Amino acid sequence: MPRPVHFAGVAALACLVLGLSGCSAADPAAQGQQPAPAESSSGEAQAGPAASRIPEADAVETQLAALAAQAPKPSRDAVRDAYAAAGFAPESIEVSQDITPTGLAVDSIVAGAPVAGECVVGEVRSGAVTVTVVPALASGQCLIGDDR
Fold first, then answer.
1. Which Pfam families does the record cross-reference, listed alphabetically (predicted)?
2. Helices (H) and strands (E) in the chain, counts
3. Cα–Cα 20 to 30 A to 103, which of 25, 26, 74, 85?
4. How many Å apart are CA 24 and CA 37, to the nearest integer?
């Protein structure tokens, strides 16, 4: 005797199929979007079209590169000082934590500061520096959470 198909099961399957169809691996350019380039410490875009850099990003990159040369795993305060030396007001600088909740050192430290609706975001990871400019969050902040 065949088993009856339950409406709830069919509805769940339909939702799953529709949900997964939105997760296609389509190229963002094919959808009219441009992928954001990742900037390296050499200032070259790693992927995507060439992006115009703002002077503040270059200043942050210079300061973070000097810091990373001295301390490949800098402290939160040292990264904040590097952003301040690049010209940002200390109260506008957001920096991720430098210690995990279990007391271990983090693998990388990220910071961001707003500039005209955008954010200059920098990362120091084992002495390597990456700086990029991204849109600010709706809140006006650069990082999620309270990292000021």
1. DUF6993
2. 3, 4
3. 85
4. 21
- Residue 134's closest CA among 48, 60, 36? 36
Q: How confident is the model at residue 53 (pLDDT cuts 50, 70, 90)?
A: confident
- In the three-class reduction of DSSP (H, G, I as helix; E, B as strand; rest coil), residue 122 is classed as strand
Does the pLDDT at position 49 exceed 50? no
Query: Concatenated DSSP letters for 76-121?
Result: HHHHHHHHHHTT--GGG-EE--SB-TTSPBPSEEEEEEEETTEEEE
Asked whether 120 and 29 are in contact (CB, 8 A), the reply is no
Distances from the Cα of 40 to the Cα of 53, 129, 130, angstroms: 12, 7, 5
Contact criterion met (CB below 8 Å) for 131 and 122 = yes
> Mean pLDDT, the chain, as a whole number?
76
Q: 117-142 burial string, b = 16+ CB within 10 Å, else e? A: ebbbbbbbeeeebbbbbeebeeeebb
Query: 54: part of which helix (H) or strand (E)?
Result: none
